[in-house]
Every structure is written in C-alpha cells, then in structure tokens.
Amino acid sequence: FLPALRAAVETAARRSGLKLRNRAGSLSLSEIMTILIGFHQSCYRNFKTYYQEKVQTEWANDFPGLVSYPRFIDWVPSTLVPMCAYLRSCFGKCSAISFMDSTSLKVCHNRRISQHKVFEDLAARGETSVDWFFGFKLHLVVNDRGELLNIILTPGNTDDRTPVPKLLQHLFGKVFADKGYVSQKLAKQLLKTAGIQLITKLKRNMKQRLMSLSDRLMLRKRAIIKTIIDQLKNISQIEHSRHRSPVNCFVNILGGLIAYCHQPKKPAISIDHNLLPAA
Questions:
Q1: Lowest-pLDDT range of 24-33, 79-88, 237-246
Q2: Angle of helix 29-40 relative to helix 246-261, nearest 10 degrees?
Q3: pLDDT tens digit string along 58-91?
Q4: Which segments of 119-183 does DSSP mark as H helices, in order?
Q5: 9 near 48, Cβ under 8 Å?
Q6: Nearest CA to 92 among 167, 152, 149, 10?
Q7: How far is the C-alpha of 245 from the C-alpha of 255, rounded, in Å?
Q8: What stretches of 41-163 show up as alpha helix (H) in DSSP?
C-alpha cells in the first residue's frame, strides 16, 4: 500500500499549496507523513519498534533517505499542518444521514494528574458516562458509510453541545445523536441556520414526543459511530498516555484518523438513498 499512500499524500500536499521537502539524502515531507500514517495501519503498538524493525529493515528500499530514529522524531512536528490539510481531503460526502458523538482521549492516568506537566495548559479534566479522565474530547460526525465528515478536538471539560454548530458546518439532512446532545435551543438553531434536523433520544424526565418510525430505526443504528470510535482507539491507536510533546500528540491523532480514512472496509449501514432528501 506504500506507493499508493505516498502518491495520495503528495497529490493532496501539492493541491493545498504545501512545499514538499526533497533534499538529497533526506526524507521528503510526503515520505515522513507516509511513515507516520503507516504506523497506524500496522500491528505495532510502539513507534520506535515499528520504525526500527519495519521501516528501516523491510521498507529501506522504498525510503532511500532514511535517517536514524532520533532524527526522524525531530522532524515529526513539521508534519502537523500538512497532516491537518491532508485529513480534510480524506473526509467523505454528506448523504443526508449523519451520526454524531464524542469520545475521551486520556493523556495520563488519573493518579498522575497532579504531576502531569506536558498538557498542563491544554488538556482538562472531564467526565464520561464511565469515569473521570484528564485529556481531550474528540467530537466527530460520520455518514452512513462510516466515512468521517468532520472532527473537532477540545479540552476534556467541554460540553458536547458547544462545538456542534461548527462541527456540522456544510452538512445537511438529519443528524442522530445520544442524550448528551439534547437541547431544544440547539435543535432550533441548527434547523433555522443550516436546515439540519437534530434527532436524539429523550431523557427519562422529558415528555414523550411523536417521532417517525424511520427516525426511531435510525436512532437504533447509531451504534455505527460507537464501532468507529472503537476502531480509532484500538486499531488506529489515536489514544495513549506516553506523549512527551503536545505537537507529537496531535500528529499521532491526525495519523490515526487518516489511517482510518484509508481503511478499505469501514463500518456501514444499509440505506435506500433514493428516499433521502436532496442537498
């Protein structure tokens, strides 16, 4: 998959106006990005082992300008902006049926929060339905084919409803979410400004309201985004608590998201698109 991945990275970089490093005897920007994304598509759980055993050994012919591991790590921060631009080009198209959710990204164990310094001014302590955590929240929206439509990263103490208007920019149709997004004010705002219908389950203390059978069935299929989040964490490895630099942490998250976008088979649900409203 290396030639195709590298070609895709180079094409996206040129279209976005990014200047690719191509000095003799060193790695170009597209090569660095390809190696980083390839890690999230591999079975390795440690980047140093992956670089030394996989890249420097098996892929040496594909990357003739390989450098030592410490030197490569020095170059990782330079890929942050290009990775952001490339991720945008990997997003799918809205199909009028979208699913929205958020997940926690821990940056350290709860017992080490008071001693943690790397993300001291960036991360925050938040709460999930399971427990407390210190880190970030990844807000994402996907379509029925399992493709990412947009993502936003916020501190862990951010309310799930706060980034929704920005998260759903340029989308249309219906968006299905869990009870954490219940807000009459937000639903009216989205419907008025963007024509988006926000559909959520009701909390126990709320009055019942009429809902079409198709919407009820779609709410049951909201598990697709839970499956995607599980794959992002356990296969693409967007979360771990050993980061020594905020920039490298963000590059790691971007690499995992891009690796998922290149995944040939994604979680999907069957929908008759002929019955959906037009954009």
A1: 24-33
A2: 70
A3: 999 989 889 999 999 999 999 999 999 999 999 9
A4: 164-167
A5: no
A6: 149
A7: 15
A8: 47-49, 56-58, 69-75, 80-90
